[in-house]
Amino acid sequence: MDVDDMSGLLNDLRPHLDPDPENPNVEVENFFKLVKESQTPLYEGCDEKLSNMSCLVKMVHLNWFNSWSNTSFTQLFKFLRYAFPMAQSTMPKNYYQAKKMLSGLGLNYEDIDACENDCVIYYGKLKGATTCPSCQKPQYKKIRKDSRGRVTKVLYKTQRFFFIKPRLQRLFMSRKIVEDMVWHAEQRVRDGKLRHPADSEAWRVLDQYDASFGSGPRNVRLGLATDDFNPFGNMNNKHSTWPVILFPYNLPPWLCMKSPYFLLTLLIPGPKSPGSNIDVYLRPFIDDLKSLWSEGMMTYDEFKQVNFNMKAAVLWTINDFPAYGLLSGWSTKGKLAYALPAQAIPHI
Fold first, then answer.
1. 105-125, pLDDT tens digit by residue?
2. pTM of the predicted model, to two decimals?
3. What is the Cα–Cα distance from 322 to 326, expressed in whole angstroms?
4. Rounded percentage of the chain residues whose pLDDT exceeds 70
5. CA distance linking residue 72 with residue 7, whole number of Å
6. What is the domain partition of the chain in residue ranges?
7. Mean of the pLDDT values across residues 301-305?
8. DSSP-assigned states of every residue in 99-132
């Protein structure tokens, strides 16, 4: 069995701030818990590389890769605990316990409930509300009670928000990637030819717009792409889910558009397209981007062994014309379909 280098992964996650003995650093405590799990053998006498953590990561990867249900995954754990009683003390009992154990690796996300009519998401000041302030629709479509009196609430819509900041930080904390994050400034060939987004006019304009941002090679330039797709692969079933993905353009051209470096940030739920209300769902994503542009975030550079303030900005969006209209709020129909000065557009 091919087991990934868990010690290397945890080293990249290591908090690089000295813990204060009077105020224990929670991140440091969580890190050492992960280290302990990575050094604990699954059972006595097993392969030394097969730790509790590495086995769990592999199993969760198989679960996601093969689209197992949470119930089937829990049943697998029950069987493995029965078949290998020597591993019962280290192996989780069910899917949710496994998910909790892996939360320290930064694989978590936030569920944000949404109005049925796409008016609002229950986020920020609306967190905790049970009725849409715009259309007065309730947050839940069903509230059921079973024979024991237990209440089950069924939501209309829930979007998933995958945090941007810790994943951008990790690009600089990884020993394998950190040097590539400044490739555009230190190794790019400047001969006037367009080989990389750093050679584009948009990149130069952004650097000129904010000189302090442009002078920092570790500040991250991003591309944004979104469009709808049917997750069920059945054309007879009309369903529209919108993923929102970021691309870190600091990386060299042979890496920046490779799937391991795609940053999924939002999954906007179906079954219907949000249409012109897509901005409602983008709010937590925009809040993170605004913070990364104006304030930045303290990040550790594994190569130079120093902390620095990392900022980020979106250079452009990648989408078809209808999605461009929804993202920009600009009408893509009629005589003013192109986002150019009206007087410069010839029309009949």
1. 666 788 999 988 889 999 988
2. 0.77
3. 7
4. 81
5. 29
6. 6-105, 110-159, 162-332
7. 85
8. HHHHGGGT---EEEEE-TTSS-BS-GGGTT--B-
> What are the b/e assignments for 96-111, b being 16+ CB within 10 Å?
eebbebbebbeeeeee
How far the first Cα of the chain sits from its last, in Å, is 68
pLDDT top residue among 27 and 308: 308
270: its two tokens: 């179906």
CA gap 104, 10 in Å, rounded: 10
d(CA 185, CA 166): 23
Residue in this structure with the two tokens 């699954």, named with its chain if needed: 42
Q: Are strands 157-161 and 110-114 parallel, antiparallel or unpaired?
A: antiparallel
Cα 319–Cα 324–Cα 325 angle in degrees, nearest 5: 155
pLDDT(35) > 80: no
Q: Write down how long the chain is.
A: 348
SS3 state of residue 329: coil
Contact 119, 102 (CB under 8 A): no
